[in-house]
Write a structure and sequence with these properties.
Elements: H1 3-7, E1 12-16, H2 20-26, H3 31-51, E2 56-63, H4 71-95, E3 97-102, H5 110-123, E4 129-137, H6 139-152, H7 162-167, E5 179-182, E6 201-204, H8 214-225
Parallel strand pairs: 1-2, 1-5, 2-4, 3-4, 5-6
């Protein structure tokens, strides 16, 4: 990694890990195998990022729109997330990593909900880094849910502030991402972290997510280090 990169490490990187199904097709595999490969890559990239000084990784694992996919694919993904959640507890505790989950849990099966809650509760005091899994997440839905909570609390219109809205988001205790990475060549946010991404730097990578690795991460961090963040100034 270059000297420039080490001086300008993003605190929070959010990832749209796109291209799992395209990667699988290119390798003669089923789309389900592509999702498995993508999950394996996420774990390695997150820990490589922490080694470089990043403090938080958010990953767009399953959007509110992804329920439109086939029943077979959705069922496989939910089972994959359950296995991930079960397998992460021991690793997260050993590595001092906190696991968070952002999104609505109402549609998730009870076993997955319980496992995710246990994972969050048992890792909440860990301090070496945060992995935030955005599961059944939609940026517009997140803002609507926050506004509904504020209205239900009887807050006067003049008391509604940006900080108050942030405090009611799924990501209330997670800082806004400094950098958002999207793989597979697509160049859009796709309803991801709409509130928090207001001043995020965006980097689009042509490779499909399962081909993203530590070397690609280093290249992205080098590019980020060359950006000048002005926040509207």
């Amino acid at each position: 990694m270059s000297e420039a990169t080490t001086k300008f490490i993003p605190h929070h990187i959010a990832i749209i890990p796109d291209g799992n199904r395209r990667w699988a097709k290119d390798h003669g595999l089923s789309s389900l195998e592509g999702h498995k490969a993508g999950m394996d890559v996420l774990e390695g990239v997150a820990r490589a990022a922490f080694d470089r000084g990043v403090k938080c990784i958010s990953a767009y694992a399953f959007s509110t729109e992804n329920w439109k996919r086939t029943e077979e694919e959705v069922s496989y993904l939910m089972a994959l997330y359950l296995r991930y959640a079960k397998g992460q507890l021991k690793k997260a505790m050993a590595d001092n990593i906190r696991i968070c989950v952002s999104g609505s849990r109402d549609q998730l099966n009870p076993k997955l909900q319980t496992t995710l809650t246990e994972l969050e509760d048992k890792t909440k005091h860990n301090t070496a880094g945060i992995i935030n899994i955005c599961l059944n997440y939609g940026g517009q839905e997140e803002i609507v849910a926050a506004v509904r909570k504020i209205i239900a609390e009887g807050t006067a219109p003049e008391d509604v502030t940006e900080d108050l809205i942030k405090a009611h988001l799924y990501t209330a205790d997670i800082p806004a991402p400094d950098l958002i990475i999207r793989t597979s060549g697509e160049q859009r946010l796709s309803n991801f972290l709409l509130w928090d991404s207001a001043y995020s730097e965006l980097i689009f990578v042509d490779k499909n997510w399962p081909d993203f690795n530590e070397v690609e991460l280093g290249r992205v961090l080098d590019e980020y280090a060359q950006r000048q963040r002005r926040f509207g100034a």
